[in-house]
Amino acid sequence: MSIGPLDDETVENYREAGQVLRQVLDEAAEMVEPGVKHLEVAEFSEERIHELADGCAFPTNISVNEEASHASPGRDDDTEFGDDMVCLDCGVHVDGYIADAAVTVDLSGNDELVEAAEEALDAALDAVEPGAETGEVGAEIEDVIRGYGYTPVLNLSGHGVAQWDAHTGPNIPNRGTERGVELEVGDVVAIEPFATDGRGKVTEGAKEEIYSLENDRSVRNRSARQVLEQVTEEYKTLPFASRWIDSPRAEMAIRRLEQQGVLHGYPVLKEDDGCLVSQAEHTVIVTEDGCEILTE
């Protein structure tokens, strides 16, 4: 059944991606416990996605404690979970149509911070309908999080998804704003409240493990050319992890391509005060009478 401008096949692709993501995210969350390696959970979830769908919409993000986004283990990462707050954010695509969802697994004893993000997401979903302004949805998120005594991460937001595009409009802020756009039937959006016990701002760290194609053009260096060929063939415009690249000189080639403006790197985003961050996320399609949650 079509929804607005989305035809039957497109809607079914989104639904399939969402169903696979729900299964994989639940399985991955069960693995998170002290002593388990980040890389083990990332590789498990990504392999399961490839088994059940067309591929990953982006590398599994495993953001711990003050990390909010773009944290994914490197090729030889042996970091283990401890008494951490762990945000798992995964993406699935079916023919390029994307579902994006996240959960927080709390090993730190701060379960109310997790509840704040989850309840904020529920409130936001209740507010989604045709004609609702994105700033109004953000106000619902902010009210719940502040009601818990925490702060929303103000410079992160939810976002639209489209075929082969993991981040597009409209943006869904995590606070109330006067400026915004009206949601329309057929919009596909990932709503993702972030809550923190800090001041609510993230900045870029030094570490990068996630990249995407920004400018497909010819390059001279052989290793860089091989990496670019793999990226364009396998991942197109979707983000990928450096550990997914087969070349023996992958890191050097990726750096060269980033310097030339061919690839875009995503530094890990961290809460400014070094405080804990929780996250909850669903992808929805806006329908005539509200929204259809694809990832529950």
Features:
296 residues, alpha+beta, Creatine Amidinohydrolase, Arc Repressor Mutant, subunit A, 5-stranded antiparallel beta sheet, 32% helix
Strands of the widest sheet, in order across it, are 7-6-8-14-15
Number of domains: 2
Overall residue-averaged pLDDT value: 97
CATH fold-level assignment of the largest domain: Creatine Amidinohydrolase
- Poorly predicted sequence stretches spanning 5 or more consecutive residues: none
Q: How far apart lie the N and C ends? A: 19 Å
Q: Could you tell me the strand content as a percent range?
A: 25-35%
Give the ordered list of helices and strands: HHEEEEHHEEEEEEHEHEEEE
CATH architecture heading of the largest domain: Alpha-Beta Complex
What is the top-level CATH class of the largest domain? Alpha Beta
Radius of gyration: 19 Å
Form type: globular
Determine the CATH superfamily of the largest domain.
Answer: Creatinase/methionine aminopeptidase superfamily
Number of helices: 6
* Major sheet description: 5 strands, antiparallel
| Percent of residues in helices | 25-40%
Number of strands: 15
